Amino acid sequence: MYQNYLKRLLDLLIGLIALPFFLIIYLVFGFLIKLEDKGPILYKAERIGKNYKLFKMYKFRSMKVNAPILLNKDGSTYNNQDDPRVTKIGKFMRETSIDEIPQIINVIKGEMSIVGPRASLISALDTFEEDEMGKMDVRPGITGYTQAYYRNGLSNREKRLKDAWYATSVSFYMDIKILFKTVSTVLKRRGIYTNNQINKKEEMKYYE
After folding, report:
1. What is the per-residue pLDDT across 36-80, written as a single tens digit (0 to 9) for each?
2. DSSP result, 118-142
3. pTM
4. Is residue 117 within 8 Å of residue 135, measured between CB atoms?
5. What is residue 190's three-state secondary structure?
6. Residues near 1 by Cβ (< 8 Å), separated by ≥ 6?
């Protein structure tokens, strides 16, 4: 009952309550984004939603305008502390997860949930294995099990397997635990960057 009815009801309720706060954050960080490079405030990324339905996921733009998309071999997004594509305010937003806040709009629209698996890139779908596909049985989330407990500290394969497990184990108690753990993880700022453990020469081999 929770997964089929109450979860969506709570998502909508939380989304509507959070909307005024989002508007305030939008004004503040929208101004800072415009001040730095005058580009668009929001970045709209096409993602795979529940039952493989495509949707536009909203984020505060953290990269320079027209920055190239770089992927690792496993289909994950290239992510490094010294990434020259990222703006100054963008780096702060990423480290504090403020760039994810506009996804409240996606939650209200019914495309995402407050808690759920990480939304996948369309270009990464060909890299999925059969036992990873279950993550698309539920709405993707602003935060989720892998984001809260591991952030970017796992391989893409491990993230997908844990997301698929979450999709079969959704419960109110688990979602509450994930929300509290998310706050702790964001405040500690651990596991933010995926590619920092690899030297520069090796990183270049991971670009697609």
Report:
1. 999 999 999 999 999 999 999 999 999 998 887 777 766 667 777
2. PPEEGGGGGG--GGGGGGGGS--EE
3. 0.85
4. yes
5. coil
6. none
